[in-house]
Amino acid sequence: MADKCITACMSDYVTMWNKKNVSELVEKYYRDTSKVLQPDGSTIRGKAEIVKYMQETIVKCGLKCTLQNDETYGTGDLVTSLGTYKMTDDKGMVVKSGRSVVVWKNGPDGCKIEVDAYTDEKCHTKGVCH
Q1: Which residues form the DUF4440 domain (predicted)?
Q2: Is residue 79 a part of any domain in this protein?
Q3: What count of other Cβ atoms lies within 10 Å of the Cβ of residue 99?
């Protein structure tokens, strides 16, 4: 059951990302307690900082995203998704790809991302756009 829910959420997340609906995406899938753990060891904390980060990644850099849920662990209020991602530029060229670990937590406001972590297995660009 959790696999289907996570897959549906990830599909909706990707649609919002690729339509550049940053504020709506963050409001729907993150909380003020959420964290994005980056490959360089830094942590982005809370909705305001996540919006700022995503504005740069999605809007300024124009990167599109695909996500694949490979495995889901857990039951109840905490579920962890292991998967892969790809970021492409406006020409469809892959600029970044890697693995993701997402901890989903159920709360009074529904199931949202508590921790979002990803690796850069292959980064084909350098500069401001990650």
Answers
A1: 6-113
A2: yes
A3: 14
Tokens representing residue 105 in the block: 């937590």
| Amino acid at residue number 57 | T
Residue pair 71/65 in contact (Cβ under 8 Å)? The answer is no
Q: Which tokens in the block code for residue 34?
A: 């959420």
Domain span holding position 60 = 2-123
- Provide the whole-model pTM: 0.86
Strand pairing class (30-37; 78-88): unpaired
Question: Residue 109 maps to which CATH number?
Answer: 3.10.450.50
In a domain, 129, yes or no: no
Is 130 a member of any domain? no
> For 91, which DSSP code?
T
Given a cut of 60, whether residue 73 has pLDDT beyond it is yes
Is residue 74 within 8 A of residue 1, CB to CB? The reply is no
**Using alpha carbons only, what angle is made at residue 84 by residues 22 and 9, rounded to the nearest 5 degrees?**
45
Which position has the higher pLDDT, 56 or 124? Answer: 56
pLDDT confidence bin for 122, thresholds 50/70/90: low
Number of domain units in the chain: 1
Q: Which pLDDT value is given to residue 128? A: 43
